[in-house]
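User: Fold this one for me? It's Purple acid phosphatase.
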Amino acid sequence: MGHYWFIISGIICGLCASAELDRFEQPSNGDGSLSFLVIGDWGRRGAFNQSQVAFQMGKIGEKLDIDFVVSTEDNFYDNGLSGPQDPAFEESFTNIYTANSLQKRWYSVLGNHDYRGDAEAQLSPLLRKFDSRWLCLRSFVVDAELAEIIFVDTTPFVKSYFLDPEDHTYDWRGINPRKHYITSLLKDVERALRESSAKWKIVVGHHAIRSIGHHGDTPELTTHLLPILKANDVDFYMNGHDHCLEHISDTESPIQFLTSGAGSKAWRGDVKQLNREGLKFFYDGQGFMSVKLTQYDAEIVFYNVYGKTLHTWNAKKQFVDHSSI
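Assistant: Here's what I get for Purple acid phosphatase.
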């Protein structure tokens, strides 16, 4: 399967909150740039245009010579995996994302639908024996030299999953007591961001901090996670959950909120009318997002199911010559 190398530091622990987030090294391209795709809410055995989105991802991935893929979850519908041997893993992942350009590392955490099955199945090293691209943990850091990407397990933040689960059963092994889990995770995220010297700081979670889609803003993340992102100069927060493509600029900081949750089933016309401050782009169809970073520039591009560019956003980084300071 493709050529990539990675170094695992620390112990991979899917069963408990660690004292420090696991770290993975992901080298940049030879020219110092970094390119990757972002896809979310996808695993439906090819249905709801998942296969068509995957085909276009392959084309764009080849064009950009991507280094890896980020999944913003939900990974497998409707109720995650039943266990490591669940055929849905191959039917919704291995057999769908077959393009040569997509044979790179896939970094993922868990979405709310993933917690409705055997959550620990997706964290199991057994899946990497079936498909070596797959890497899924609760929370972790990818050190890509130019950028550090902190993946955050946002599902336990949402109180309603615990207080009013409706007809759903969630696999909370390794999470309870919830308050302790969240407190420890926030400390780990804050420390990882504070100690990062990367040019670009990116945080990935399943749930939106800002969105005008079906679910809207996530109050628990706005209250607990967003202040940490602002205090540590995070550039991008990337998420899924709302089945759309979306770009919102924070009105109080440089943070860009980027939703890529349109990997299969989309919600046409399901738009919130409130809190549209900073809205740059919204699309209620299927598609995905690409990210290209250099020392000085970032380019974010959203594509639809036909590979057509819908929205492009460019940013520049100030260069500081520390030798003259």
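One thing worth pointing out: The first strand starts at residue 8 and ends at 9.
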